[in-house]
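Appendix B, example 12.
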Amino acid sequence: MPCLNAAPTLEQRCHGQRWSWHLYVVVFLYSCLMGWAQAQQAVQATDIHLERGEDGIYLNANLEFELPASLEDAVTRGMPLSFVIQADVMRERWYWYDKRIQRTERYIRLSYQPLSRRWRVHVSAQAMQATGLGVTLGNSYDSLKDALQAVQKINRWKVAELSVLNGDVKQRLDLNFSVDLSQLPQALQFGNLSSSDWALEYHRTLRMDELNK
């Protein structure tokens, strides 16, 4: 008569270990996906639309987000925080990968000046390296709230020339907004790439077909 309290066989123990490992992997991946999804939802947009002007195509939008406490603390302590907005005009092709017709970029730097206790926002069409701001437009603000509103507001940003429009093909504008990690001090770039605090991102696709009319 078999013993009911017999110890599990080696095969049974290995099977149990494999099941535990698979469960751990599933839970880990689920946690990563949930964290990624929450980061993606951290930035929202309202009143976003394209308009056709006499000399180009313009984007209007209002991005809505709050800085995580760690980012706000870093900026307050004197570390500038940079954002980048990319607008890609894409031509859709059923027979191959979609073709990028034009890319327009906007770089925004948010900084705090402890001596004057004022916030500064600089905007440039090129990346603002640590060696200098280059050709930028800058404004000062009394509070972080006011400075963030300037960062978040996109008012008649020229994203493309009228010459890119082609009524014979389908076209769209791919909009991407994120923290510009390349502008962080090198000591911070590697360690913060996986941190959800730096994952302020927004992605949106806008149809351009109506602009041909």
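The chain has four helices and nine strands. Residues 9-41 form one domain.
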